[in-house]
Specification:
- The structure is a single chain.
- By secondary structure, this protein is of the alpha/beta class.
- The chain has 2 domains: 72 residues, no CATH class; 191 residues, 3-Layer(aba) Sandwich (Rossmann fold).
- Helices cover 32% and strands 23% of the residues.
- It is built from 8 helices and 13 strands.
- A 7-stranded mixed sheet has the order 5-4-3-10-11-13-12, covered by helices on one side.
- The relative contact order is 0.12.
């Protein structure tokens, strides 16, 4: 390995270590980061705020980074919406964001949609003691059918979708649903917040059937133009009648109403 490669490796390892230390504390974080290198997939318990119900993270995967982004650093801590009774979490991964929403909006109903089988299994475990969260295995797409999951090499949070080659189904194929199908099948007449983090598939979603957007009050989406150019263009064209906009990193929230204290 040349010097530039070594520097890059050390930078990545340093970020991983700091991430673990933010989640678990300095000493325990360093110890668990080392454990994850030796025992990939080992589960460790964490909590969202004062909620006594545990969440389980898999060491040696991107789970700790997801918890760090969502719970510690507040990736979705936007001003909008002010209140929520129904939330749809698309690209729910292992359920960290769903649990965070459930804690932020007590009494809300959360539909957690995740296509990848290992992530979905951990999601089911994490919401087993959270009756307010309903896990759904599926992939939100611009059209219905079947899609294949492709490992983009970025860990458990980075699976992308591709067309199915042939009719054979494996654990890496999953049902593709449109937004309208998803809402109709789960009797969702109104969704206060639609969160989407689907690694570039949002481009096709917002180029497809958009009738269901009339039932949505706010949308939080991570845009992945770095993977699929045109994501931002298709999204903002679809939500032109959502006047409120707020950014946090690569994630943007748009809403039909301006939250208290916010400015358009």
């Amino acid at each position: 390995m040349d010097s530039s490669g070594l520097i890059k490796t050390l930078e990545v390892e340093g970020r991983h270590l700091r991430c673990h230390q933010r989640v678990f504390g300095l000493a325990r974080g360093a110890a668990l980061e080392a454990v994850g290198r030796l025992h990939r997939g080992r589960h460790v318990e964490v909590h969202v705020g004062n909620d006594p119900r545990p969440l389980w993270l898999r060491l040696g995967t991107t789970d700790v980074a997801v918890f760090d982004e969502v719970v510690i650093r507040g990736e979705y801590d936007f001003a909008a919406p002010r209140s929520a009774s129904t939330i749809v979490d698309v690209g729910a991964n292992i359920g960290v964001t769903s649990a965070w929403y459930a804690a932020r909006y007590p009494g809300c109903r959360v539909l957690a949609v995740e296509p990848e089988p290992a992530n979905f299994a951990t999601l089911q475990r994490n919401v087993a003691n959270r009756p307010e969260v309903t896990p759904v295995r599926g992939a939100l797409c611009g059209s219905s059918g079947l899609v294949a999951l492709v490992d983009a090499g970025t860990g458990a949070w980075g699976f992308q979708l591709a067309a199915v080659n042939g009719s054979a189904q494996t654990d890496q194929t999953v049902r593709a649903v449109t937004l309208t199908e998803l809402f109709d099948e789960h009797n969702l007449d109104w969704v206060d917040l639609l969160k989407i983090d689907i690694e570039g598939a949002e481009r096709d979603v917002f180029m497809g059937d958009l009738a269901a957007l009339d039932r949505v009050g706010a949308i939080a989406v991570e845009l992945h133009d770095r993977f699929r150019p045109g994501c931002s263009r298709s999204f903002f064209r679809a939500v032109a009648d959502f006047p409120y906009e707020e950014w946090r990193g690569l994630t943007v929230v748009v809403a039909r109403e301006e939250p208290s204290g916010a400015r358009l």
